Structures are given as C-alpha cells and as structure tokens.
Amino acid sequence: MIKAKDLTKVFNSGFLFSKNIITAVDEVNFEIGRGEILALVGESGSGKSTIGKMMLKLLKPSGGQILIEDKDIFSISNNKEFYSRVQGIFQDPYSSFNPIFKVNRIFRLVRQSFKKEISISEWNDRVEEVLKKVGLNAGDVLNKYIHQLSGGQLQRLLIARALLMDVEVLVADEITSMLDASTRVDVLEALLSLKEIGASILFITHDLSQAYYISDKIVVLYKGSVVESGSIEKVFSNPMHPYTRMLLDSIPQLDRKWETDRIDIEDSDKKQAIWKEGLCKYIDRCPVADTSCYKPTLKLVEEDHYVACVKL
Ligand SMILES: Nc1ncnc2c1ncn2[C@@H]1O[C@H](COP(=O)(O)OP(=O)(O)OP(=O)(O)O)[C@@H](O)[C@H]1O
Q1: Alpha-carbon distance 201 to 168, whole Å?
Q2: Atom 12 (ligand 1): residue with closest C-alpha?
Q3: In terms of Cα–Cα distance, which of 97, 93, 96, 66 is closest to 169?
Q4: CATH 3.40.50.300-classified regions of the chain
Q5: Ligand 1: which residues within 6 Å by Cβ?
Q6: Which of 9, 12, 22 to mutate to test the pocket of ligand 1 (most atoms within 8 A of CB)?
Q7: Alpha-carbon span 309 to 312, nearest angstrom
Q8: Which of 10, 79, 136, 311 could lock onto 62 through a cystine, CB 3.0 to 4.6 A?
Q9: What is the pTM of this model?
Q10: What are the φ/ψ torsions at residue 108 (nearest 5 degrees)?
C-alpha cells in the first residue's frame, strides 16, 4: 500500500565555515500493506520523525521516493485528496485541533470537507458509532471544547476522525508518550480499530514494548540507516544486530534490577578515532565491530527478517 524506496533526507544547516550537513535519513526502504502496523524504532535523533514528516508531505525527500499504490506522493498535486487518504497524529494532540471549536463542530467540518455525500443524520450515527469504537462516549465529548478534554481523549478523537475519513495511511508519531500507562493502552486499542478498516499505520515510538504489543512489522533505525527489519515476532525472538540486542536488553523488566541490565560498551573514544566514511555507523558503540565493518547492507537472515551487519 505505502512504500518507502531508498528514502533519503539531508539537512544543510549553518553558513560558510560553520556549515553542517546531516544525513537524517539514509536510503531507507520499507513497505506497509493494508491493515498492517509497522513500528519505526530507534533512539532520539535516528530519523524517525523525519520519515514521518516526509510521508505526510511536510518535508521533501533529498532522494528516493514514497509511493502510495505505486504513485509518488509528491506527484499528487491535489493536497485535499492526499490528506483525505493520509493523516498524521503527533505527540501533542492539542496542536491538531482548532481550540475555538467544540468537538461536534470539528466532526461537522470533517463531513463538509471530505464526506459531503453522507447525510447529516447518517453522519451523526457514524460519529456516535466511531466514538464508541475508540472507547469514548458521545455525550461526554461532543459538546466540549478541546481544553476541556484530556490528552488521552484527544488522541482517541484524532483516531476517530481518521476512522470517519476512512484514511488509507496513518502516521502515528509518539502518540502515547504524553499519556499515563492505562490511558496508553486505550489509545493503542483505538489504533487497532484503524487497522481493522484496512489502514496502513506507521507507528513511531521509543517504546519497544508498545511496538511489540501493536505492530506486525518493525524497522530499527540507527543514525538514519535501517540496521534490522522484518516481522515483529522474528526480530523480537531473534534480534541479530548488536544495536537491536542492546535496545531489547534495555527494556525494563519487573524481575530484574537495573544493575543486571548493564551492557559493556567498549571505549567509544578509541573506536570514534578509527571511524572513516563507509564504516558501519554503529562502530563506536558496537561490542563486536572492527575496521572490517565496511558498508553493511541489509541481508536476508531468515524469512521476513533482514539485518545489516557484516559480522553475521
Ligand atoms: N529541520 C531540520 N534541520 C536540520 N536538522 C534537522 C532538522 N530536523 C531534524 N534534524 C536532524 O535530523 C536528525 C533526525 O531527527 P528526527 O527528529 O527525525 O529524529 P527522531 O528519531 O525522530 O528523534 P526523536 O525520537 O528525539 O523525536 C537529527 O540529527 C536532527 O537534529
């Protein structure tokens, strides 16, 4: 359904002698089928949001393409058509709503803009049904302003809006990070109702437990490059890249104290000093790397499981 093909984004910042070039996304490939959720994970600065923004046409790629049903999204000139098919939900839900409207007006505007063919009474029934699906009670939310609702209710309203629009693709960027643990589960359950209508979902998260809970596939990013990808079951049960292993080892567990989770990382200054263009980007933190780790590319290690490590 939606595909990233050699997707690249280079940022140029600074001026003259202080010019800074950052390859935030480096030839990334993935595909999300209908009704699939793909988790995009990686530490802060690994390029997750930049990919999400490109999928929403908020940033233009420096190279590669994003294709919806084999059509480059940047060749779709009608933005209204594009955003009726592709929507984004972000960490801070307040910024996605007009604060001077009550919720029922917001939903009325969705009908006017995207679903005029549906009669008002049918639309009202649909709104009620969809709110129920995302765990909200119409009577509790429709007559309220945005500031009168909680973060969890607003995230579920955004999911309800996407359901009413029958979106084909949803980019969900850290949508639960401002919520408490029990509300998080409600929002994730609501997201699953979008999967049920066949939407393709990019689920951007720092939280590997949430990624596992909800996703079918995973892409692990490090410094803009994919280090491991595949089915969520395969990657979690048999992580092979040293970075993925480190991430999975870092998940806090109730029966383990922090000390036992510590991972030895070799002297990073020493490895930094030997880094040259083309060497693996993870070399300075990797316990097994050496200077033979040159240009790792993704290799199939088992069905539905790819790893970019020359030591395998
Ligand atoms: N507009 C910009 N101009 C210059 N550099 C940018 C810009 N946006 C992002 N970057 C850089 O691109 C890299 C990737 O950033 P991005 O926000 O995509 O990472 P992320 O994985 O989403 O991080 P986080 O989890 O903290 O949100 C970072 O080094 C960041 O500083």
Answers
A1: 8
A2: 24
A3: 66
A4: 31-56+74-229
A5: 11, 13, 22, 24, 42, 44-50
A6: 22
A7: 6
A8: 10
A9: 0.92
A10: -60, -40
For the CA of 59, the nearest atom of ligand 1:
1
Distances (CA, A) of 95 to 6, 7, 36, 148, 292: 31, 28, 27, 14, 47
Span 133-179, pLDDT tens digits: 999 999 999 999 999 999 999 999 999 999 999 999 999 999 998 88
CB contact at 8 A, 217 and 34: no
Alpha helices in 93-218 (DSSP H): 103-114, 120-133, 138-141, 151-164, 181-196, 208-214
State the distance from the centre of ligand 1 to the C-alpha of 128, rounded, in angstroms.
Answer: 38
Q: How many CB atoms lie within 10 A of CB 307?
A: 26
The CA 105 to ligand 1 mean position distance, Å, reads 35
User: Ligand 1 centre and the CA of 124: distance in Å?
Assistant: 40
ipTM of the complex: 0.98
For the 31-56+74-229 domain, the top CATH level (class) is: alpha beta
Residue 29, judged by CB atoms within 10 A of its CB (0-12, 13-18, 19+), counts as: middle
- Give the closest residue (by CA) to ligand 1 atom 1: 11
Gap from CA of 25 to ligand 1 centroid (Å): 9
Whether pLDDT at 260 is above 50: no
162 with 87: CB under 8 angstroms? Answer: yes
Per-residue buried b or exposed e for 123-159, using 16+ beta carbons within 10 Å of the residue's own CB? bbebbeebbebbbbebeebbeeebeebebbbbbbbbb
Compute, in angstroms, the gap from residue 20 CA to the centroid of ligand 1: 13
